[in-house]
Amino acid sequence: MATEESANQTTDSPSYIDLDNMPSMDELLEGLIKSDFSEGSIIEGTIVEVRNDGALVDIGYKAEGYVPAAEFRHWTDTKLGDKIDILLEEIENENSMPEISLQKAYAIKSWNKIITESEEGGIVKGLMKHRVKGGIIVDVGGVEAFLPGSQIDIGPVRNMDDYIGQEYDVKILKINHERHNIVVSRRELLEESLRDKRATLLKEMEVGQVRKGLVKNITDFGAFIDLGGVDGLLHITDMSWGRISHPSEMVEVGQEIEVMILDIDYDKERVSLGFKQKSENPWQTVDAKYPVGSHVKGRVVNIMPYGAFVELEDGVEGLIHVSEMSWTKRVTKAGEIVSVGENIEAVVLDIDKENKKISLGLRQKERNPWEVLAEKYPVGSKITGKVRNMTSYGAFVEIENDIDGMIHVSDMSWTRKINNPSEVLKPGDNVEAVILDINTDQQRISLGLKQTEDDPWKDIDKLYAIGSVVKGKVSKITAFGAFVELSHKIDGLIHISQISKNHVEKVKDVLSVGDEVEARVIKVDHDERRIGLSIKAAQSDFTEEDYRAAEQEYSTALKPGEEMVAMGDVFDETFGEIEAQTEKKGKAGAEKQAKQPVEAEEQAKDKIDTPAKS
């Protein structure tokens, strides 16, 4: 009984321990771990041993975990007893130790902190860690974020390595919670700061202010100047009062200059700048400094086909037109007279302040030689000169100082009709001529060769009285007659009807150029200056009645076209051949051939009005 009671008391009593059924220590620890530790959780641990390559961390488990030194942000400062938060990745690894990570725990804590405290659009500190494709990895509070290359700075980034190791404020652009990705921008913060600074600076600016700035960029049309947050354009036309071909002649990138504010567009945030406006416009007083008629000195800065530009002072240039470079030479290119860089003296001819133009002259430094020549050689004076040039309508004769006068074909002979000056003159001939007219304004001198002698037609009735017999030499043969050169260089015409009493079919069958003939004067036309001759009327048995008949016959035998030739408008030894060709070509061709001599003469007469220059 006692034994049974004792047994029951032992079984029911709280102090009774069944040693046979009691769990082992490992089972007790395993139950404790299962209840207090869970993989993937962050727990606190204590550093219980510091080794060269890492540290042992007690997390309250049967074994310590190991953290490599590389996971500590400040390994050199790590010591025994330090409390750290670690991530329990695995309760027991292959070494029966807990697998823990300080770095992953820090990353999870940092991520949780940044998504809790920050949001898209927020501003955080970022440490530039290392380059990756397309940008830079930035440490943002322990979390790696991506900074695209386009978001590093306002301008183009030439070398991203220059930013590594630097710490900047960055703006969170995008947070991807699923992938734990963050994209940040530094550029947006810079632009916002710049906008604020620009707005403040624009409010401070006023037109007319002079401010310092740095040359930021140079283009063909001007330079952009950084005024401390606001870029202004200094246009090439506002750089200098003078001539510049490119802005680089005035400024260079990085140079600090003072500029004047010319205009401000607050809406578009544009500023127009000027450099030349800091000094007085030299054109305001140009008429007082360079009065018309004054002699000025300057440097040739540019040459164009039509003239040369001369810089009188900085910002003031004058133009010497080619027509104002020489009194006597026909200048076609300014480069023939002056060259760039040459220092010259000129005369002010005209000033246009409004359009900023000054007309200069080189030739005006000397008196107009045409005026001097007009005084020296009044109309009617005789000159002697050399034939320098020939044209189809006349010859140019040098008088003096490169001044030429022109002898028109109509003023070469009293008695002969000259179609081309080469019939009388040739280049290099020394001739005596008479001044017929001098036009100093148009720089033309008209000369006369025939005027050096008396006009023989004044005494023609005495020299060649009607009915008198004269001798001469055949000079030209035509289809309708022969021209005979008489004394005093006068030509007479023997019509084909007056060659012989017998019928003559062709003149060249009876007469040849150079033949000496004797003929009687049967007609003298003072108005047309022509003499009619007759060989058959010169015969001894020719009666007065025969003479009158010959005169009538001569007058009526000339056809209109032949009369024109008889007047001397055409002297063509091949007239007969041309006439034969004309008949073959038909009426239209004949009319065209007949017009050519008349048109040639009309053109020659027109050219008498051209300037008498070689």
Helix/strand-derived class? alpha+beta
Helix count from the secondary structure assignment: 11
**What is the rounded distance between the termini?**
168 Å
What's the name of the CATH homologous superfamily of the domain at 466-558? Nucleic acid-binding proteins
Q: Percent of residues in helical segments?
A: 10-25%
The CATH architecture of the domain at 466-558 can be given as Beta Barrel
State mean pLDDT (0 to 100 scale): 80
Which assembly state applies to the chains in this document? single chain
Instruction: Quote the CATH topology of the domain at 466-558.
Output: OB fold (Dihydrolipoamide Acetyltransferase, E2P)
- Largest sheet, strands/sense/barrel: 5 strands, antiparallel
Indicate the overall shape: rod-shaped
Low-confidence stretches: 1-17, 31-35, 560-614
Strand numbers in spatial order across the main sheet: 3-2-1-4-5
CATH C-level class of the domain at 466-558: Mainly Beta
Primary descriptors:
5-stranded antiparallel beta sheet; OB fold (Dihydrolipoamide Acetyltransferase, E2P); rod-shaped; alpha+beta; 34% strand; 614 residues; disordered C terminus; 30 strands
What does this structure look like?
The chain is built from 11 helices and 30 strands. The chain has a 5-stranded antiparallel sheet with strand order 3-2-1-4-5. A 5-stranded antiparallel sheet has the order 8-7-6-9-10. A hairpin with a 3-residue loop joins strand 21 (382-390) and strand 22. Helix 10 (575-585) packs across helix 11. It is rod-shaped, with a radius of gyration of 59 Å.
